[in-house]
Amino acid sequence: MRIGVISEGHADRAVISNILTGLTGLDISAFEALRPIYTIDETDKAYKSPQTFSSWSVVKEECENRELIDGFLAFEGQDFIVIHIDSDKAHEYGIVRPDKKSETYCEDLRGLIILEINEAWFKEDLSESILYAIAIEEIDAWILAIFEDGDTSKPYDAKGRLVKLLNKKGINTASNYDNYYSISKPLSKVKVIERGKYLDKNCSLKAFYEEIETKVLPKLQQEIT
Amino acid sequence: MDTKEDIEAKIKEAQDILKSFELPGEQQGKIPALTFLALCNIKPSDSWEDGERKSLTLSKDIMEFINKNYDVEYKPNTRESFRKSALKPFVTYNIAELNPDDPNLPTTSSLTHYAVSYLVLNTIKKYNTPDWELALENYIKYRNQNPTDVSPSVFLKKISINSYKSIVNDTIDLGRFNVFIGVNGCGKTNILEALATVGAERANDLTFEGLYSRGVRIARPDLILSSFLSDSQKSSIDINLAFESNNNQEEYRCSLTPANLNDIYTKWINLAEEELYPDLLLEYFGEIARSNPGISGDSLLLKVNELIATRGLKKDRDFDSVISDYAIFDLNTKSLRGITSTDSKKTPLGLNGEGLDILIGSFNRTERSHLNKCLSFFDWLGEIIADKDDKLKMLGLKPGRSISTLYFRDKFMQDNNNTFSAENSNEGVLHVLFYLTLFISNKTPKLFAIDNIETALNPRLCQVLISELVKLSKDMGRQSLITTHNPAVLDGLNLLDDEQRLFEVFRDSEGKTKTRRIKFKADLSDKKFKLSEMWLKGLLGAVPKNF
Known about the structure:
The complex is a heterodimer. Chain A is an alpha/beta fold. Chain A has helices at about 10-25, 40-45, 55-65, 65-75, 105-120, 140-145, 160-170, 175-185, 190-195, 200, 205-225, and strands spanning about 5, 30-35, 80-85, 130-135. In chain A, about 50% of the residues lie in helices and about 10% in strands. The N and C termini of chain B lie far apart (about 85 Å).
């Protein structure tokens, strides 16, 4: 089995890959990076503004035109695609935030973003093949769950908090694939996740975890039998 | 007047011969037997030694002969049965030749004719004589060397490689035309080399020279045996092959260990064959004793040693000649131009492109007509000239450095200035000609690999060339393993055809080489792009991920 990953950036894919490996047992080589790479040449880079290459707009664009999604799913052994998007800029892509003080803020916001993806972007229900990695508010909050106690989906600026915390511990803070792969490594070990109760600290991390459990694991089991 | 008994006896004999020639059951029925008798011009009361070769059309000659001599009355509307159950398979199995008097006849021509092959004719003349067994043995031995042989007698179905360079454990189910893609350094060429290593072993040629001559990059044994951080190094390379030969499956296990781990020139030993040594030695002793009655003990030992040196201590297998002849072709423009000293000694085509001119010069009309497909690939190309006697050199058309006798005529140029030697020609045309020749000629290997087939070729040309090579590989009974970095090569493949297979070669998280087949799902309605575009978009893998 191979799983495609459409993410806002390379570092996001690193975190997602660790979670996928931990739950499915698939080798890292089974995760295919579909976005944000491969779509532009050097001329595009010189012509377009840098923001267009690595942000929620990349994800939205792909969900709307579905070139990579349909193409990837056309091959045998390729049945799932992870769609990653952070909620911190949700207002920019048309989401009206629920009450921030609400106890179900995280679940509600995640639900609204998935609705937007399905109805406004895909314009049809592809949820059988899509693993929604909606990070509230940033994927850095999922990593924060490794280092912090308490609900990491609440505070804004998870990235800033993570950098501060890593600096304190003398850990490299660079936001690139290799470094994020390394610092999010504990998310690739189910026992470590359970022991650290990471899923209880971020409902969006837990929801992504459950996406994999309910969609991918039965298919993997089917392949084995 | 021939009696009914004579007729039945002769048909039975023909069926017995077809069976001895190892034709499938379907080709041992009454219609194939009667067709065979007609092709050999044998009437019920004739002796087989009276057999004759004649060029015969189906309706006018073959069916009339049968109806007249064998007390039957096949109507014209039964022609298709003769074609399907007899003539087509006879051509495939080299019992008969198609259109020997005019190889360029269109397939639908009413002049389409057949003639029994000379090898078959000479063999059947010995039927019912004391020499039949020997003649049959020779027939089996030589039938695959017949220049019209296009049927693949041996087909490599599966290869499993353990502990060879970056491949720790990998299995590949092969088709006829196999294309491998992957990032630089993923291990594509290692797969090709593992197969060449078995070829050298089966040819009793598992030496530095034997490996090099098959296109293997030589390294010290301790660098050839997989060496990864996560595992201890094994002492042997294990390669298992599964062949299909005349509908029989045959598996071969090979476990190669170096005599000296640190010696690049060391001999390799196949441990998997060791258990066969006692039986093989007895077989060799018996063989020598039978042909040398009364031989002394010392002489016997001497002869056994000679036999071991030439044949090796191994059992003969059906696939030996195919795998021994396997090589990895990796073209070099200078070799194709004939301006470097001949590096590869492999004949008739060298691994780097040597010998192309000589082989094309020896082509018959059919081979030449296949080769002329090349004219449609280059809009400027008017003619391919194989100047066997090198007369054009005397006209000053070759500066003198090149030993190639190939020339090309540019159709846009004036008559007196339009012929270019291989040394001066475009390099793409030389590469294309080489690949066509490799697939067309019956003197080249049945199973081979091509590393980086796209070198020097325009992307669109890659697509049409691959499509043509796929067709040739089926028509000429070839099996190939091909690597490429050019996406356009993929556009020449039809992945809905199980004989054409595409593989991604990749390194897993521990760096070990793995291979997976890339296959479409049944519903292709969502396929919006060509395979080349899908590769570039990252949908097939086989691209670096981090930039």
